[in-house]
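REQUEST ID: PR-0412
SUBMITTED BY: lab tech R.K.
PRIORITY: routine
TASK: structure prediction, single protein chain
INPUT:
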Amino acid sequence: MEEPQTRFRPSAEAVDRSLGHWGTNLANASTFDLNKRISGYEITPVQFAILHRCFIGEADTVTDLAQIIPIGGPSMSRQVDQLVTKGLLQRQRLSSDRRIVRLTLTEDGLDLVPKLEQIRAEIEEELTEGISEDDMEVFISVARRIVENFEKQQRS
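STATUS: complete
OUTPUT:
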């Protein structure tokens, strides 16, 4: 008779201290609520992130967006297509280099982003209730270092 395979089962303490566990739960908490609250605008959290990055001037091409929002290039193109169809983004070819297509917000997009940003800020305020400014600074500092470590690992 064969020995049953032994499966690794992490302890409850190991799960409780797992970066993946808390990262996933944090992402779920903020994204689930955001998705629910902005659904009336027929926008997804990823589409909001795209609009927001264009609004603040952090990105103005699909390539730029794909480097800062963690979805693949083809998915990014589809999301941008949907935002163009909804009349929130527009594409403009550069006259100096016809290969480059700049993304800009339409008037409707410019009107919508501040409304969505207000909703996002309200959610963040609710989720961080009872957490001091000092604790938030520590949390953000640690999260930033983790992301930097990940990015460094990806480059090597």
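NOTES: The CA atoms of residues 40 and 116 lie 11 Å apart.
REVIEWED BY: pending
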